[in-house]
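Dear support,

I submitted the protein below through the web form. The confirmation email said the job was done, but the results page showed an empty box. After a refresh the structure appeared. I'm attaching both so you can tell me whether what I see now is the final result or a partial one.
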Amino acid sequence: MKRELWIDLLRGCCMTAIVYDHTESWFVDYHIIPYSLYVSNVLVIFYFISGYLFYRPTDFQPVHKLKSILHSIIIPYFFFMIALSLPKSLLHGNDFQLGALLTNVLTGQQSWFVTALSVVEVLLTAILSIRSLRLSWLLMFLAASTILSFLWGTGFLTTPYNFWHADEAIVVLPFLLLGYLVHRYDLFKKVTPPLLVLLAVIFFAVKTIIYTHHYEEIISPINISHYPLFLVDSLTSIFLICPLAKKIPRISFIEWTGRHSLVYYFFCSGIPLVMAILLRKIGFYFNGEYWKVPIAFLLNFMAITLLTWLCYRFLPPVLTGKRR
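What the results page shows now:
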């Protein structure tokens, strides 16, 4: 299939937002811009795009897809989590224990977003492996997954020990299914300009309610204060932002970020921590001066971009999830 460049652009924008969020977390030590105002939407859109890319005009091949998940997500996860574990332990002031490291990595306790992504993609693969799935069956699975997402998202149900962040995977499963449905039936074509205006009004109204009532929309660790609002917020952001992304002119460096977002994600927490430590050592503290945050963000983004480029340039493709 021809590569859809708007997906690279949107992924790049979302990854940029994640780096900004982590910059605030480490440089300021808390979120000045509330997490629920944009971070949850960015994460949901990431998962939605993953489901969107599941669809192919040809017959779905479960074995091929499972191999793809192994090569593009799981192998890079093991490599980067093991490689980065020692510097992370030193930065956090923890004792390095090989046994504890291997246990955390093997049980998927590192990098929750990536492990949850691998689990939810396996779940979607299992659903789509059912032959001759009609629209009625897909809608039934979507409804069932939404119910499960509600039960897990509100804490009524959990999985034992949350191996590989299965709880978070269940919470986001309906968004992957929705992405598949949107692509298969080309639903974005039905989003007209008047509908976009309506979606924008709903989106900002929901965000106002969330902000004024201090509702949380944290996917990991799961802390969703009001699931119906979270669902409306997520759906309106998907159907508002994705069609708009198709109309944005090409921005090469953002598209490059989107194409390499997996490795960006592995670095997007550790590098802001290192940068915050270095900036404090030279006397560049936050001190309530918000203009310093964008500077710290730009430094983080440049450092992560350089490291990501080095990884894709010099590491074997199998370790970065890159297709040959």
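Response: this is the final, complete result; the empty box was a page-load delay. Residues 62-91 form the longest helix (30 residues).
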